[in-house]
Specification:
The complex is a heterodimer of chains A (108) and B (513). By secondary structure, chain A is of the alpha+beta class. Chain A has two helices and five strands. The chains are: A alpha+beta (108), B mainly alpha (513).
Chain lengths: 108, 513
């Protein structure tokens, strides 16, 4: 169903990817960890490597949790599928697009 | 012979009302009616006879202003007395005022927006009856804006968080929740607005929105706010009557209106319910002296009064309870805890303070939420206690994912599974949009072209539109000053409160040392 309107109703998204240049928004969901009330939202270059994403953005955010262990075993998901990121891969190569949600779960 | 002039005939109240409202209406003769009232057709609502509108309150302007002036006089007398006797010192605790900061920043600006839109309805509805009713409500809403500002301005002299509420309403992340809710209604057509605000907000959810604040005031020594509440009460009951009359009128005019109205109820119940998330945490966590739990309030004011009462009556017209109402019911034992845990970890970027619930408060929570608090939320507070003991304080070092519709951080969990966050994903014109619940996703997908325009605070910060890239830059742009937000214990408010209450000599009250 479309908006019922008195005139033409056509406006661009206020968060479209082009507004971020070469960057995009990436969400990181700390599954089964209620310490963080919601998934985190980062702005990251599409060409950023996974290693840089992890060390420069995720770790400084996540280490505020006293139980955070950067070397713990983790299962990652993207678009509902598990994936295993390698440090030298870029976010784009991994297949992360603007506003994607990456799932992250610590496993024993 | 002279004829004695006839004594002027005195009109009855009803005749006076007719003469001063409906009798002032006329049929246009040289322009089309649709040119005079161009906004009442595009929504698809069919009205055959505007005169069938039953005036819920047969007020005339002179009677109206007389009543309101009397109520104002009483309120302002209380405000003066409270100010002169340093009444703020008899609050339960300074932390109580966090509820009022939220009210002034989040609710008062909505009163003003309601004033604007009812003024618009007072011009644009075809019938003189609903136009006059909208006019009265428009003036009421303006009066509520003013009396709330005056009531709470007393506290601005002594406490943080009150000084920049208008600009903050337009800018701060958690205030985008009530603001975007109302903007959604303001940008709808006149009939949708009537159902959104007149019916859903002012009738369906009004007791959940306003009563908790006013009861909280009465339980915590806030005489001015309580008096304001009483002063607004008779207006609110008129607004409720108008909301109910509006929906009945639309339903009775044409059967084709029923599905349109039903969809608006489905949408606006969920939109309004999401705003009450802020009320839920206020009741359970912000009030030093508790009134009732959110769960009890929800059961009484919504499940019992609305689902058990109102919707039984509306069934006659073919109206059913709002879509997704079961998801709201399923949330009643988890909602306030999840929301406060969120505000707690983001209050460094807010114009109110938060603190960890103390032992008594946790006992109360555990008694009132026997199935959930000890199992799901107490472990979090235990972990935070250890964190505090080690010199930490849980403030998130970054920004959260937001719901595209309600704009609340995506903190809500799957219906029936309080340990899994609810993530809903939609694609519109090749772009992804996330929502926090079945309700918000349904609303998004119904009118995606509306919600893609959402001014999401997190995205705006990342686009560089909020003063800069660092937290201090953004806080400066929000107009948040030292002492407005963060941890309550050891805050400016807490320190002043202790000084004022411990000192034998109170002559320095209001000064900073």
């Amino acid at each position: 169903m479309a908006v019922k309107s008195i005139g033409t109703y056509d406006f661009p998204s206020r968060s479209r990817q082009e507004l971020y240049g070469d960057d995009q928004l990436v969400h990181l969901w700390f599954q089964e960890n209620p310490w963080f009330c919601a998934a985190a939202c980062f702005r990251a270059p599409k060409a950023m490597t996974w290693g840089d994403f992890w060390n420069a953005l995720v770790v400084p955010f996540a280490e505020e949790d006293p139980d955070f262990d950067p070397s713990a075993n983790r299962v990652w998901t993207l678009h509902g599928e598990p994936f295993q990121p390698r440090d030298e891969q870029t976010l784009e190569e991994i297949g992360v697009v603007h506003k994607d949600v990456i799932g992250m779960k610590v496993v024993a | 012979m002279t004829i004695a002039p006839k004594a002027p005939r005195k009109l009855t109240m009803k005749q006076r009302y007719e003469a001063l409202t409906r009798d002032l209406d006329w049929e246009p003769s040289y322009v089309a009616k649709s040119d005079v009232f161009p906004h009442t057709e595009f929504e698809g609502i069919r009205i055959h006879d505007w005169s069938k509108w039953e005036d819920p309150f047969r007020l005339t302007v002179d009677a109206y202003t007389k009543y309101q002036a009397e109520k104002d006089k009483r309120l302002y007398a209380v405000l003066d007395g409270f100010a002169q006797s340093q009444g703020h010192l008899s609050l339960t605790e300074a932390s109580y005022l966090n509820a009022m900061k939220l009210f002034l920043q989040g609710v008062t600006p909505l009163e003003y927006q309601a004033h604007r839109n009812f003024a618009y309805l007072a011009r644009h509805l075809n019938g003189p009856g609903p136009r006059f009713a909208a006019l009265c409500q428009s003036i009421d809403e303006m009066r509520h804006t003013q009396t709330e500002i005056h009531t709470l301005s007393n506290y601005n002299k002594y406490y943080g968080g009150f000084h920049n509420y208008l600009e903050q309403h337009d800018r701060v992340w958690y205030l985008s929740v009530p603001k975007s809710f109302f903007d959604d209604a303001l940008s709808a057509g006149p009939f949708e607005f009537l159902i959104a605000i007149g019916f859903s907000f002012e009738y369906l959810l009004t007791n959940l929105l306003f009563v908790p604040f006013m009861s909280g005031a009465s339980f915590n020594g806030d005489l001015p706010t309580m008096t304001f509440g009483f002063s607004a009460q008779s207006d609110e009951s008129r607004h409720m009557t108008l909301g109910l009359e509006a929906i009945k009128f639309l339903l009775e005019q044409d059967e084709a209106n029923v599905p349109i109205v039903q969809a608006w109820i489905d949408k606006w119940f969920w939109r309004g319910y999401r705003v009450t998330a802020l009320v839920a945490q206020m009741l359970d966590y912000m009030l030093p002296r508790k009134v009732m739990s959110w769960k009890e309030a929800f059961e009484l004011y919504f499940e019992e009064q609305m689902l058990g009462g109102l919707f039984q009556d509306l069934a006659f017209y073919g109206i059913t309870p709002p879509k997704h109402v079961d998801d709201a019911i399923a949330e009643k034992e988890v909602l306030s805890h999840q929301v406060y845990w969120t505000l707690y970890q983001f209050s460094h970027a807010a114009a109110f303070t938060t603190t960890m619930p103390d032992a008594d408060a946790q006992t109360w929570l555990s008694e009132n939420y026997a199935d959930t608090f000890d199992r799901l939320y107490k472990p979090l507070w235990d972990k935070e206690q250890k964190n505090l003991d080690a010199g930490g304080r849980h403030f998130v070092r970054g920004l959260p994912q937001l719901c595209q519709v309600c704009q609340i951080p995506m903190l809500f969990t799957e219906p029936g599974d309080p340990t899994t966050l609810c993530q809903r994903d939609s694609v519109y014109r090749g772009e992804k949009f996330q929502t926090c619940s079945n309700g918000c996703q349904w609303i998004f997908e119904r009118e995606p072209e509306k919600y893609v325009q959402a001014w999401l605070p997190v995205h705006q910060i990342y686009q560089g539109n909020c003063g800069g890239a660092t937290i201090p830059d953004v806080l400066a742009w929000y107009g948040i000053q030292e002492g407005d937000g963060g941890e309550y214990k050891g805050s400016v408010d807490d320190n002043n409160w202790n000084t004022w209450h411990n000192a034998a000599d109170h002559s320095h009250i209001g000064s900073e040392d």
